[in-house]
């Protein structure tokens, strides 16, 4: 029985994905895996039993990836699982900003009951603009950014995108009508709306700063449904107060922007739809189950993608540093036990690597335990697992 620990409320549809071999609870002190949403794990101590973390969502800046790899924990996310939910909210926020919807509804609520609210003199203060023909800059054209960009093209907007790391797969998803900008300065130039959809990391923290905002049209609307800290909120407030920015819509609050009349703040709602939460929980549950039962890695963010069919009754998997002679040390220890390697697969991702060795001729459980212990003692190895071929065979 595998133990799965949850921290946040996880969609019941996703939890139902787990088969009878998995027990889900919030307290287990010896969990095999965590299933989480946005809980911040940077100050959290991982128990030695923990082998996997399934992040039900796209962003994983709440997880200390380097430490997870060092402690032999595979981390998974759910690429694209909530992208449509974010797209729909971003489109809604562009319309809300352009049509003064929130201000108008608030005004209607506070007039005398029965007053004629359709009087031109009163309602003209809420005159809006249309999206049709306006220019949208999309920074980051991955799962969310590409959906926003394509939807905006379909709404008749002129769309320009910036993504220096655009994958071939992501490029295939983009409408041909989307122009590609060579730089951040070029993408924001003359844009009526600027929306960011990049992961938060060292490079993107503060990427929308005072200098970039000074290049916006003063009538521009900025949207940040990616992460707090990608936009410099002090620069936003300065620009709003000096009429160099019209509106800021975001999913992330702080004391600087809280309560500003031209800022709309939502409580991190981008991925909060029934459908997105179910998609993400299902994807994370599947990735975690696959890893626990076969050792295959799908959608890992700290380890390489690696999937091989079971070639023998037993499989040894190792998470280790990406340094010379690891495979030599691993295979010579296996050979010393007179165990035969049926298949060996290895792949690296940055400083860490993952090795799958399918073996046969294991004499007995004592021999298995001795080999696993010796492999675990190789200094750069952070986790060794022995996995028996799942019932149902060669997966
Ligand atoms: N508000 C919410 O509830 C949600 C927020 N998010 C946030 O949005 C981010 C993006 O989500 P996805 O599109 O699903 O991720 P993704 O990984 O599919 O796309 C990110 C894109 O950003 C690009 N990128 C990376 N660094 C860049 C840079 N310096 N300049 C320009 N482009 C850059 C990448 O090449 C990639 O195409 C997530 O990392 C997460 O932080 C995602 C889902 C829900
Ligand atoms: O609703 C959530 O769990 C957060 C979604 C999110 O921010 C993400 O997927 O990156």
What can be said about this structure in brief?
Belongs to the D-isomer specific 2-hydroxyacid dehydrogenase family. By secondary structure, the chain is α/β, with parallel strands linked by helices. It has helices at residues 12-15, 65-70, 83-99, 101-110, 120-123, 143-154, 168-173, 184-188, 210-213, 233-241, 274-294, 326-336, 365-376; strands at 2-6, 22-25, 33-36, 52-55, 74-76, 135-139, 158-162, 179-180, 193-196, 221-224, 247-250, 263-265, 314-321, 340-349, 352-360, 381-388.
Strands, helices and their partners?
Layout: E1 2-6, H1 12-15, E2 22-25, E3 33-36, E4 52-55, H2 65-70, E5 74-76, H3 83-99, H4 101-110, H5 120-123, E6 135-139, H6 143-154, E7 158-162, H7 168-173, E8 179-180, H8 184-188, E9 193-196, H9 210-213, E10 221-224, H10 233-241, E11 247-250, E12 263-265, H11 274-294, E13 314-321, H12 326-336, E14 340-349, E15 352-360, H13 365-376, E16 381-388
Parallel strand pairs: 1-2, 1-3, 3-4, 4-5, 6-7, 6-9, 7-8, 9-10, 10-11, 11-12
Antiparallel strand pairs: 13-15, 13-16, 14-15
Helix pairs in contact: 3-6
1,4-dihydronicotinamide adenine dinucleotide (NAI) binds next to helix 3 and helix 6.
């Amino acid at each position: 029985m595998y133990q799965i620990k949850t921290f946040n409320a996880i969609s019941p549809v996703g939890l139902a994905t787990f088969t009878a071999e998995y027990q889900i609870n919030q307290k287990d002190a010896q969990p095999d895996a965590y299933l989480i949403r946005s809980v911040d794990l940077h100050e959290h101590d991982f128990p030695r039993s923990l082998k996997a973390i399934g992040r039900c969502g796209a962003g994983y800046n709440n997880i200390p990836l380097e430490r997870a790899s060092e402690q032999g924990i595979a981390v998974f996310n759910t690429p694209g699982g909530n992208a449509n939910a974010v797209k729909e909210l971003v489109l809604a926020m562009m319309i809300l900003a352009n049509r003064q919807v929130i201000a108008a509804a608030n005004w209607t609520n506070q007039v005398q009951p029965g007053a004629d609210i359709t009087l031109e003199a009163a309602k003209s203060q809420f005159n809006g603009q249309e999206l049709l023909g306006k220019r949208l800059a999309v920074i980051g054209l991955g799962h969310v950014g590409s959906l926003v960009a394509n939807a905006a093209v379909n709404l008749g907007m002129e769309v320009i995108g910036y993504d220096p790391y655009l994958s071939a797969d992501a490029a295939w998803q983009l409408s041909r009508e989307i122009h590609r900008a060579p730089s951040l300065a070029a993408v924001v130039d003359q844009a009526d709306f600027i929306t960011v959809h990049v992961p938060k990391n060292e490079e993107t923290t503060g990427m929308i700063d005072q200098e970039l905002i000074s290049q916006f049209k003063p009538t521009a609307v900025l949207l940040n449904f990616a992460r707090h800290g990608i936009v410099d909120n002090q620069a936003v407030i300065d620009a709003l107060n000096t009429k160099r920015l019209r509106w800021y819509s975001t999913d992330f609050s702080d004391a600087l922007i809280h309560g500003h009349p031209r800022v709309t703040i939502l409580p991190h709602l981008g991925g909060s739809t029934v459908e997105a939460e179910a998609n993400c929980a299902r994807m994370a549950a599947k990735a975690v189950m696959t890893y626990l039962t076969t050792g295959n890695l799908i959608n890992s963010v700290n380890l390489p993608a690696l999937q091989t069919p079971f070639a023998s009754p037993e499989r040894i998997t190792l998470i280790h540093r990406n340094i010379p002679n690891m495979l030599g040390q691993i295979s010579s220890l296996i050979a010393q036990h007179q165990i035969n390697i049926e298949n060996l697969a290895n792949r690296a991702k940055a400083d860490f690597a993952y090795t799958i060795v399918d073996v046969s001729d294991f004499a007995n459980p004592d021999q298995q335990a001795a080999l696993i212990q010796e492999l675990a003692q190789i200094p750069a190895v952070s986790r060794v697992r022995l996995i028996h071929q799942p019932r149902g065979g060669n997966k």
